[in-house]
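Anyone up for a design puzzle?
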């Protein structure tokens, strides 16, 4: 073989390798594009779910004004994890009236605070209110729930 023929053969071999690299490169590029599309799709879906959840997270806890508007002059019937069932009337003057006990309620910041007869410690709870349903939350944990009833239907 002469040098010229050998050189042209080498040139053809490099073209073949370049084509192989080009084809493999385009295959890899297609995979990268699909991966990017998949990641973008997941990112968009995650953003949609987070955006959908924001209203729920944003209005989870009631403000002090919302607690007063829902509770003052009304009765709540429900149950607490620690103490069981209750029915309490929350008078506008801050007194709590029930069948066999009484106490006082107040709102401090965005919490409703309770002190019952014979007790010395005030117990404060956040409230999640949806319509007539109320959930009592303390330290991020649901501790009880109830239904708000208008007025004092039990005559306490």
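Challenge accepted. My sequence:
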């Amino acid at each position: 073989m002469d040098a010229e023929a050998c050189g042209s053969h080498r040139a053809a071999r490099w073209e073949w390798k370049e084509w192989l690299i080009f084809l493999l490169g385009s295959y890899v590029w297609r995979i990268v594009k699909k991966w990017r599309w998949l990641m973008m799709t997941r990112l968009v879906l995650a953003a949609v779910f987070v955006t959908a959840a924001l209203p729920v997270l944003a209005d989870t806890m009631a403000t002090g004004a919302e607690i007063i508007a829902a509770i003052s002059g009304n009765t709540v019937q429900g149950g607490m994890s620690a103490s069981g069932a209750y029915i309490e009337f929350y008078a506008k003057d801050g007194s709590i009236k029930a069948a066999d006990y009484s106490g006082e309620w107040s709102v401090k910041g965005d919490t409703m605070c309770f002190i019952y007869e014979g007790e010395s410690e005030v117990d404060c709870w956040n409230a999640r209110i949806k319509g007539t349903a109320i959930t009592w939350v303390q330290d991020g944990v649901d501790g009880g729930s109830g239904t708000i009833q208008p007025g004092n239907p039990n005559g306490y």
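A detail worth pointing out: Residues 51 and 58 are 11 Å apart (CA to CA).
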